[in-house]
Amino acid sequence: MEHYFQRVKGVISTSVGYTGGCKDNPTYKEVCSDDTGHTEAVEVVYNPEITSYEELAKLFFEIHDPTQMNRQGPDLGSQYRSEIFYLNDEQRITSEKLIKMLEDKGYKVATKVTKATTFWKAEEYHQDYYKKSHLKGR
Prior knowledge:
alpha+beta, Peptide Methionine Sulfoxide Reductase, Chain A, 5 helices
């Protein structure tokens, strides 16, 4: 996901990490243990004069399968759940509107919309993972 958000004009920075759980500063190993309640997430900082929250939220729904529960592709576990963490009511309303649009088209959307809690930045080897991995260019 991070790779696609980085390509959007107006996105200033992205970080991958963990949010939505109960443990301070969790590690990847702890998140994968399913004991912390965290999910893997991407924090996106953007210029609202160039792009909008709605455009970024639409991209979120385009680059993953919002109908899958606790998985994305081959990755299984609650840390891979589809969830939007909003910062304000405007973001919540926009997210719920987009989900409703998908449901009106017949999709059974599993994506949860949750008030944001602390975002814990993941270990450095997770940052820009797509660029660093062997998957580049495939």
